[in-house]
Write a structure and sequence with these properties.
Blueprint lengths: L42 E7 L23 H15 L11 E4 L7 E4 L3 H4 L29 E7 L6 E7 L8 E4 L9 E4 L12 H14 L4 E6 L12 E5 L5 H4 L2 E6 L4 E6 L7 E5 L3 H17 L4 E6 L4 E6 L2 H7 L4 H4 L7 H5 L1 E4 L2 H5 L3 H9 L5 H18 L18 H10 L2 E2 L9 E2 L1
Parallel strand pairs: 1-4, 3-15
Antiparallel strand pairs: 1-5, 2-3, 4-6, 6-7, 7-9, 8-9, 8-13, 10-11, 11-12, 12-14, 13-14, 16-17
C-alpha cells in the first residue's frame, strides 16, 4: 500500500530559528522548549503501554494476548501526529519528495536520493574517538527542541492496562520518556525515542532504556516499523540518549541474510552470526521473557561500550530479532584505508545504511546504485574476521561473567571461546586507543 501525506512548504522548527527571533515570543526563553524555563504547566499526550512478560510466539509474545489499545499506536497515533507536524512545516525538508528504489540484484538493497541532507543536518559536536563521553548540557540536546516537535510521552502503565491520555501533565521529577520527530528525516514517520529525557543521559545503552525500545517495537506490532541505535563513533550525531525509528514497507537486506547459530543462553536467547552479508554481526532472538532478550543484548552493548568499540543496533520483527553490529569505518577513515571513491559519496554508514537502506547524497550515486557498490561501501564498515571473533569472545565472556551476578549464563559452548576477566583485561591493555592525524578524530586500535 502506498502511503501518502500532504506536502507543504518546509520551514524550520522553533529551536532552529535565528536567535534574533527569540524576543518575539513571550514566556520562558521564547522557544517553548523542554527545558525548565518553558516546561512548567506544559502538557503532552501520554501513551501508557502494558508490560509484557514473555517474548516469543504467534500472538505478539508468548502467553501475551495483545489487548486492543484505546488508540492504535502506530497508524493512528505515531503516524497521525507525525503527519500533523509535517503539515505544520516542522521538518527541514520534505522527505516524501525524495526518490527511493529497490536496487535490482540478489540482496535487495534500498536506495534513497536525499541530496543535501548532510548540509541540513545538525553538525556533530563531540569527539568521535570515544564511545563513552559525558553529557554536555552546553551542546545541543533534546531538552532544547520545541515542545511542538514532541509527539507524545511513552511510559509503562501504572495499572497494567494500555491507556492513552491526550493531554497529560509532564512530570519533570520522574523524567518521562518521549517520542519526537526527527527534523531531518530519512523516511516516512521518522521519529526519536528519548528515554528519561530530563535525566540528561549520554548516548550509551543501559538495561532500562533498551527494554523501553523493545517495548516500543512490540507495541507498534508492525514488522515494517523498526528501531535503530548508533553509538558514538558509529555515526551518532547527538550525545543525548536516543533511538531512531521509522516505517518502511519493505524487508531490509540484513533481515533476509542467513545466520549460523553460535550459542544459546539459559534464559532461552539464541545468538547467531550473520552469513553472506558485507557487515559481520550477531543476531539475538528468543528468550523466556522480553526482558531476558533485552538484558542479553544490552549487556553485550555495555561490553562494547566499556571496551570502546563503536557499534550499531537494529531492532527488527516487532522486537523479536535484534542485530548487533560492531563497526570500524571511522577507524579506517583515520588510517586512510577507505578508498577515495567511497569517501566521495559522503555516506556515513550508520544503522540504516548497514541494514541495507542506503541514503545517498549525490544523483550520480543514486543512478549508478548497484548490489556491488552497496556491498563495497558496507564491507569497509565491517570488522575483519579475526577482530570480529575477538570481539565475540569479549561479549560471550561478559555474558558468562555476568551470570554470577544473576544474569544469563551460556547454555552451550559457543564457537568462540569466551575470555576470562583476566584475558579481557589483557586484551584491553594491548588494544590501546590512539588518535592519528586526519580530517577528524577517530578511533584507532593499535
Amino acid at each position: 500500500m502506498m502511503l501518502k501525506i500532504k506536502r507543504v512548504p518546509t520551514v524550520v522548527s522553533n529551536y532552529q530559528k535565528d536567535e534574533a527571533d527569540e524576543g518575539r515570543r513571550a514566556g520562558g526563553c521564547g522557544r517553548n522548549c523542554l527545558n525548565k524555563c518553558c516546561i512548567p504547566g506544559a502538557k503532552l499526550p501520554l501513551y501508557a503501554f502494558k508490560k509484557q512478560n514473555n517474548s516469543s510466539g504467534d500472538k505478539g509474545f508468548s502467553g501475551h494476548e495483545k489487548q486492543e489499545a484505546p488508540v492504535a499506536f502506530l497508524d493512528s497515533l505515531l503516524l497521525g501526529e507525525w503527519e500533523d507536524r509535517m503539515q505544520k512545516g516542522l521538518f527541514r525538508y520534505d522527505v516524501t519528495a525524495c526518490e527511493t528504489k529497490v536496487i535490482p540484484g540478489q540482496f535487495g538493497f534500498i536506495a534513497q536520493l536525499n541530496e543535501g541532507r548532510h548540509l541540513k543536518k545538525r553538525p556533530t559536536e563531540f569527539r568521535v574517538d570515544k564511545v563513552l563521553q559525558p553529557f554536555d548540557g552546553s551542546k545541543f540536546n533534546f531538552t532544547k527542541v520545541g515542545q511542538e516537535e514532541v509527539l507524545f510521552q511513552f511510559e509503562a502503565s501504572e495499572d497494567g492496562e494500555v491507556q492513552f491520555h491526550p493531554n497529560a501533565p509532564i512530570d519533570v521529577e520522574n523524567s518521562p520518556s518521549v517520542v519526537a520527530i526527527n527534523v531531518s528525516p530519512i523516511e516516512y514517520g521518522h521519529v526519536l525515542l528519548i528515554p528519561r529525557i530530563f535525566e540528561s543521559l549520554p548516548q550509551r545503552i543501559d538495561r532500562e532504556s533498551f527494554l523501553l525500545a523493545l517495548y516500543m517495537a512490540a507495541e507498534a506490532g508492525n514488522p515494517y516499523f523498526r528501531l535503530g541505535y548508533n553509538s558514538l563513533g558509529a555515526f551518532a550525531t547527538i550525545n543525548h540518549l536516543h533511538f531512531q525509528a521509522y516505517y518502511l514497507a519493505v524487508t531490509f537486506p540484513i533481515e533476509k541474510a542467513p545466520t549460523k547459530k553460535t550459542t544459546s543462553l539459559d534464559v532461552g536467547v539464541k545468538i547467531s552470526e550473520l552469513l553472506n552479508y558485507p557487515v559481520r554481526g550477531l543476531v539475538f532472538e528468543g528468550g523466556n521473557t522480553l526482558e531476558d532478550l533485552s538484558n542479553s543484548v544490552s549487556d553485550a552493548c555495555i561490553c562494547l561500550q566499556e571496551n570502546n568499540i563503536p557499534y550499531n543496533v537494529l531492532i527488527s520483527d516487532c522486537g523479536k530479532r535484534i542485530f548487533l553490529l560492531p563497526q570500524c569505518y571511522a577507524e579506517k577513515q583515520a588510517l586512510g584505508e577507505v578508498r577515495a571513491e567511497l569517501l566521495d559519496t559522503q555516506v556515513n554508514p550508520a544503522v540504516w545504511e548497514i541494514s541495507g537502506h542506503m541514503v545517498l547524497k549525490r544523483r550520480e550515486d543514486y543512478d549508478e546504485a548497484s548490489d556491488e557498490n552497496a556491498w563495497k561501501l558496507l564491507a569497509e564498515v565491517s570488522l575483519s574476521e579475526e577482530r570480529f571473533q575477538e570481539v565475540n569472545a569479549l561479549i560471550f565472556g561478559a555474558i558468562a561473567c555476568g551470570g554470577d551476578d544473576g544474569n544469563a549464563n551460556l547454555l552451550e559452548d559457543p564457537d568462540v571461546k569466551p575470555h576470562s576477566r583476566e584475558e579481557v583485561n589483557a586484551i584491553n591493555k594491548s588494544s590501546r586507543h590512539a588518535i592519528v592525524s586526519g580530517t577528524q578524530e577517530c578511533l584507532v586500535l593499535q
